[in-house]
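Write out the bound-state structure for magnesium ion.
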Amino acid sequence: HNVYAAQWSANGGALGSTDLTLPGASVFGENVFSTAVQRERLPKGAFKALQAALAEGTGLDAGLADTVAQAMREWAMEKGATHYTHWFQPLTNLTAEKHDGFFEPVGDGTAMAEFSGKELIQGEPDASSFPTGGLRVTFEARGYTAWDPTSPAFVMPNPNGALLCIPTAFVSWTGEALDHKIPLLRSMDALSNAGIKALQLLGETDASRIYTTVGPEQEYFLIDEQYYFERPDLYTTGRTLFGAQPPKGQELDEHYFGSIPERVLAYMMEVEEELSKLGIPIKTRHNEVAPAQYELAPIFENSNISSDHQQLTMQVLQNVARKYGLICLLHEKPFAGVNGSGKHNNWAMGTDTGHNLLAPGDTPETNAQFLFFCAAVIKAVKKHQALLRASVANVGQDHRLGANEAPPAIISIFLGKELENAFEMIATGKGTGVKKGLMGLGTDVLPQLPKDGGDRNRTSPFAFTGNRFEFRAVGSSMSLGFVNTVLNTITAESLDELTGQLSKELKTAKGDIFKAVSAVVKEVWAADKEICFDGNGYSEAWHKEAEKRGLYNLPTTPDALPWIINKQTVDTFKKYKVLSKRELESRYEVFVEQYSSKLNIEAETTATMARTMILPAALRQAELLRHAGSGPGLTRLSEELAALTEELIDGIFVLEKANDHDGPDGGVKHATYMRDTVIPAMTTVRSAADRLERIVADDFWPIPKYSEMLFIK
Ligand code: ADP
Ligand code: MG
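---
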């Protein structure tokens, strides 16, 4: 791949073009082997050669690689690093690292610090236990990690020996992508190539590269670690499998944007400082809707770096929490009955000349461009709506999407009144709220466009928010890699198609860009406007309306995942060389497998906790009642307890049987079985347990309650 440095990259990018005062600004980038550090540390010739190789996307020769490696090692060791790792993103939403020491024996009984160019560029982790979905058979378990020089190396501090992390891609020996980074990079290339062709026709000829940009808003919960360790469900599955609703819930709405508790604030400030050192620019923090829920948002960066930084952000959020006696929960739905957590993926396309292609501009030319790029997104989302839904499917998301707190499982686009009217007007010559003729564009062909964020719609899964689209259906625990790979690839495809159309229309319109763009936009609107919806996405009426419009409603993961290997998906991804059929199949297999095995763990945990913690509490309560003597009230209590206890016991047996089952042929059939048989069995057990929680003596109840976990800060 070629250029990822330049404008929108780590340190010169979004941040370089603004002068924000960030928290932790004085330490910003301190732990990053940034371009500035490279300039300072490398011999002049080597620095220039490295930058040139990056810009042209060519490899480094062995000599240069050695020079860079040495400078990197010396810099890292000064920061306390003793080991290095190739840091990569297998298909698990987590990152992986294998630590190697810098010191190597030199034969005379002493050791010398060594780190060669070869070690920098390529690694071979023993990678046989990462999920590969059949891409790598175990006897040929080799996978390679390859340096991604466009994402800067960094040092992860640790008082007992820091770690130099080298962002890498992870490939099989046959060259197939085993990670989330490679396809993302490929998709960025695809989009850039397609978009640049469009820009040429649209008259913007200075740009030579388009970067997709992402600013993810991360939601998370914080609870006291004492409670966490008392709950096997939380520490084995990340969510509570039991827990009655507390008397005081979310309905008071007092938490959202409320003042932040002191311990939490101290935690947030340390998180921001650590992220700042890693070159991650954090911009906002606040309380979220649910009690104990918070959010943090960085300033956007190019998709590749943003995705790397997002992985680091999740890690730092979790690490720092421990210092404050807190646990950071990134699960999509840690607590039933209160809002879950998502990750809003703010996404746009920007040129290397610093122009955001999704921002309506000041001139007719930029507005024509904007409408063209916006139309391409509408077309792409309409065509690949089911795939987009699949790209955010996981077991946690099934509790969240469509549950009146998060976008529905139906993908639609919110454009806002002004923009929707603009499209409508171009298409029909009619529109409301937009004055035809004025438009401030020097032409009456294109209407005036919204200059600010316009109205907001919190219920839409894919909303235009002034200068970007916000994909709100992403889950809080997810890597940004796959979602953005999908977004970029489908947009590349539609840009390509619309560019073809534009070039024809330009001929018809004798070179009049406005007329030609209008004609293209008109066609997109006529064909695809059904995907646009500005009403309440949570409402029952929308579900009916969406069905009438023929939009896909894929409520659960097993419904959605098959779209990853649907023919339409395979064709598009193959055409743009982002993922081959085999690579798509491998992802599909891995995601299906993750769904089933996570449910299997949840089911086992539910059964075990019910049998060994909750049932004994109920039996102790029965004992207590027996000791209390007799009387009509006591008899009533005993009967109530006995009935619920029986319900719990029955539920446990049904669940254990349901889960003790290999399932029909594995794969999506098994996943469907887990969804239809095992989940209901878990729900039955929980329902009995949650009612028991309300009648069993508080000091018998073996696990912390929702009210403790959510309200003690
Ligand atoms: P809100 O809560 O209103 O959605 P926030 O300020 O919390 O807004 O988050 C907005 C996010 O959108 C930030 O991460 C910001 O960097 C990101 N963003 C802004 N402009 C762009 C852009 N051009 N491309 C990608 N992300 C962007
Ligand atoms: Mg948002």
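---
The first strand starts at residue 81 and ends at 87.
The chain has three domains: 31-179, 188-579, 591-711.
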